[in-house]
Each structure stands twice: as structure tokens, then as C-alpha cells.
Amino acid sequence: MPAMSRPHFWRHPLCLAPRALHPWLTEAGSLTARLKKSFPALRVRVLRQGWQRPVRDELCELRLQRPEAFAAVREVLLLDGDVPLVFAHSATPRQALRGGFHLLERTGSRPLGALLFADPTITRSPLAWCRVDRRHPLWRRAKLAAGPLPPRLWARRSVFFSGRDRLLVTEVFLPATNPKTV
């Protein structure tokens, strides 16, 4: 499996994250499945799904050469009832929708992890972590979706591989998963 190149931004040491957040940040299996154990009323709200330009720090991970390139992007909120827990952002190049990640377009309000972890041919890169703040586009999108947020939040990301196709998944942990994220 190719290594994730991890721009310097995504190399924050995990030890800097609040200890209570470590189990969420390091979950190797489906984050959604783990969240369901702690939050039985967990549901997925699809915020957007379609073509858009990836965030700049995603270009390398997706092997997109041009900043003006478009990717298939899906953004969701994972909620406990009406309480936002995680803002999730997934991006994949156009050709992956004709290949290994063709089911992405038909995911609807189902958790993406249910598809990814059900297919034994899909592999995953190691996780990378960082603290995002209002300068990062995903913090700003999470704020639009979830409302007021602390100035800094912890996020993790990894690349899923299906053959040569890539799907980058980033999860931003909102205050309800750990009130001490500020």
C-alpha cells in the first residue's frame, strides 16, 4: 500500500491531542461503528455531495496535478440526535467513481465506513492527525454545518485504496466528542 505523503500540516503528534480524544483519533476500524456504541441515536446528515475543487492539502493525497481539478466530494455530519459529533469530508478523483469507489455516488445517508470496511479488497493508509483552526477550509465548513465552534479542533485523515484508486477521508471531531478540545 502506498504511504500517505502527509503534508507537514498533517504531522501533529498525537500526544498533543487531549487524552480523552485519543480513542476516537486512533480508531483503526469504522469510526461510525465505534460512535454507535457510545451514541446509540447516531445518524448521518448528508450536507453536500458532488463535484468541487479539493482542499489544497488534499491535492497530493489524491494525486491531482492541477489545483483547478475537480474531485467527487461528500460531506456529512455524524449526529447524536441533533448534537453534531463529527464533520466528515471525503474526496476522490473522477476516475475512482468509474473504478474502485463506484458505490460512493449511491451511498446516500448511509455511513461511508459501512461500505469501506465491508470490502476486504479496500486497504487503508496509516492515520494522520492535526489541529485545524479557522484558517483551514474544513474548520470553516464544519462551523457552517454545526454552528459555533472552539477556535481549534482535532482532525484525522487517511487514504483508502481500491487497486490504484484513492479516497481521502477526513474527520473533524466536534466538541460533543470531547468537550476539552479547545
TrEMBL record:
GO CC terms of this entry: cytosol
Gene Ontology annotations of biological process type: pyruvate biosynthetic process; ubiquinone biosynthetic process
Function as written in the Swiss-Prot or TrEMBL entry: Removes the pyruvyl group from chorismate, with concomitant aromatization of the ring, to provide 4-hydroxybenzoate (4HB) for the ubiquinone pathway.
Origin: domain of life: Bacteria
Residue sites binding substrate per the record: 74, 112, 171
Source organism: Formivibrio citricus
A single GO molecular function term of this UniProt record: chorismate lyase activity
Gene3D superfamilies: Chorismate lyase-like
HAMAP family reported for this sequence: UbiC (MF_01632)
Lineage: Bacteria, Pseudomonadati, Pseudomonadota, Betaproteobacteria, Neisseriales
Pathway: Cofactor biosynthesis; ubiquinone biosynthesis
Compartments in which it is found: Cytoplasm
Family membership: Belongs to the UbiC family.
Protein name: Probable chorismate pyruvate-lyase
EC number(s) recorded for this UniProt protein: 4.1.3.40
Signal peptide positions (record): none
Reactions this protein catalyses: chorismate = 4-hydroxybenzoate + pyruvate
Keywords linked to the UniProt accession: Cytoplasm, Lyase, Pyruvate, Ubiquinone biosynthesis
